[in-house]
Structure formats: C-alpha cells, structure tokens
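Quick note —
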Amino acid sequence: MDNQGAAGGSSEASNLVALHEVRRQRHPQTVTFHRTELGRILNIYSFMVAANEWRDYAIDHLADRAVFSVYKRSSEAPLFQIVKEPKRASRQGAWSVLNAAGVTLKRGHDLERVLSVFDKPLKLVKG
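Predicted structure written out below.
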C-alpha cells in the first residue's frame, strides 16, 4: 500500500482541468436563435396558425445552423424551414427560407426581409 493517500495525491490527481473546456469538447457549441429572432418567427407562426395554414413546428439547434421547421401536419415533411447559418453571414446572408422541396425561396442578411416571403398580399374588398 502506498503512503501518498488522498493528501499526498498522485501525478494523475494533481492535473487541473478547466471544466468549461471539457464540456466544450463533449458538447460543441450549437447555433441557436436569439430571443428577439425567435419572437419574430413565432409572431408569423401565430398568424399562420390563426389562418389555419400551419399547425405544428420544430426547432433544431445544430453545430452549423439553427432550423425552425413548419408543418401542416406533424406526420409530414416540413412545409417551410427558416434557417440561420452564421457561416454564410458575410457572403449570402445568414438567413434563408426553404420550401418543402428544399428550394431556397429567399435569402438575406436581415431576418425581417427574409420573413417577408410569408406576407400576404392585400386584397381589395368591395363594400
């Protein structure tokens, strides 16, 4: 039996490790929506739910992008995906809206402009 015990410590036990570094290695940083961004997306979502066009959503936070997917029925593929990709921010813009086929409907630097793809055209109502 060795006499070092708990107080003496061994060379393995004396290594200090920064906990935040270990966590970063185990769980790499993910891209997330900021509170104001998510608020704007959910505002449009609520209008579309009220119009009975959308019924469900999913949020995915991945290593390279964050995705807000919109569904008509939860058992189907998403109707639209609102994607935030920070690595594209300097070139094409971090924001994009994709349809069910994966075609980019709108891409840009400003979330408001990208979400304008969901704006309803005004109709003339005769009284």
